[in-house]
Protein: Threonine/homoserine exporter RhtA
Organism: Deinococcus carri
Amino acid sequence: MPPVRPALPTPPPILALVLSMLSIQGGAAFAKTLFPELGAAGTTALRVTLAAALLSLVFRPRLRALTPAAWRAVLPYGAALGLMNLTFYLSLTRLPLGLAVTLEFVGPLVLSLVLSRRLTDLVWVALAALGIVLIAPHGGGGGHLDLIGAGFALTAGAFWALYILAGGAVGRRVPGVTGVVAGMIVAAVVTLPFGVATAGTALLAPSALLAGLAVAVLSSALPYSLEMVALRAIPPRIFGVLMSVEPAIAALSGLLFLHESLALTQWLAMLCVIAASVGISLSGERPLGEAEPAN
């Protein structure tokens, strides 16, 4: 009888979720350092493609067993995932990390508010709107906000909202993690042409592949595993509250790893968006059922 391997220790659920957010934003900060060599599109393609390969090796999904109806759910899910990552990385070429994540967070927040049936949630709409107003006059380092960068970040948020809606359909039609892995493969197919057009053969350089693998682990494989630990033990409402602090973690990651500072009004704007997200999480159902890292 073969010896029984001891199970790997798992962190407590709340710690697992905090570590997941730290990993995601640390991965985003590291990914930004690759932009001079690979560009935002090249970095996106490398990260998503390697993440798809890693998840395929770990989970070995039965893709051939997917029905046409399942693929009709997976295709928009994967496309939204790929374009969400691409537009978010494009926003990072023009915005500090914390500011980009704050603006991106507006997408799922608006979706939560649209799906809500509570009049009291209008308070959270106003609070989130105040946050956007506070952001608008300022950019990183005290200059004017880069409107193109803000547009990319808000577009990433819109794709995040579409990803959440499509993820619900995938969860209903595809069992287990097969849908998630299939969606990541579709995301790789969507982003790879942009990456090849931008970075070309630089994507195949050993240093680029190694760095891309690190980003894939930090931004996809590791946080996905940690979030699964958290989701099994934390109620969805509390999960939503804890996830709401991610813009602040992103800002701290940008400050520590990229030396990006935000103006006081931008910190206040971030707190408004976080408070609105916490409010909508506590006041009703939050449709962030899928927790695959956006960044």
Observations:
- Residues 1-7, 138-142, 285-293 have pLDDT under 50 and may be disordered.
- Residues 13-283 form one domain.
- The chain has eleven helices and no strands.
- The chain has one domain: 13-283.
